[in-house]
């Protein structure tokens, strides 16, 4: 695991993420709070320091307006592309 603490940046996908990685603040928050995983488990699964997990969670709660905008952008993208998905009940053998 990396011993270097990562900063939270917005270089990729216009969403806050760990510097040098594609792991977003939103993803880490969802893993810990949405899926109920321990921060150490998230860190181990993604080869990051547990401090990076806490850093991402801190960023999430320190920037509620920004994170709300990120969530709204994700929801809008899902809705915009919903027509591209197939409902399993519509698939015929």
UniProtKB/TrEMBL annotation:
For this protein, the record's Gene3D superfamilies field holds:
Winged helix-like DNA-binding domain superfamily/Winged helix DNA-binding domain (1.10.10.10)
Q: Which InterPro entries match?
A: DUF433, Homeodomain-like_sf, WH-like_DNA-bd_sf
Q: What is this protein called?
A: DUF433 domain-containing protein
């Amino acid at each position: 695991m990396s011993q270097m603490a990562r900063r939270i940046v917005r270089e990729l996908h216009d969403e806050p993420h760990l510097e040098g990685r594609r792991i977003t603040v939103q993803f880490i928050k969802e893993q810990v709070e949405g899926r109920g995983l321990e921060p150490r488990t998230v860190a181990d699964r993604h080869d990051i320091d547990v401090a990076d997990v806490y850093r991402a969670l801190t960023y999430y709660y320190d920037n509620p307006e920004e994170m709300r905008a990120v969530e709204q952008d994700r929801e809008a993208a899902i809705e915009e592309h919903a027509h591209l998905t197939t409902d399993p009940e519509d698939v015929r053998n």
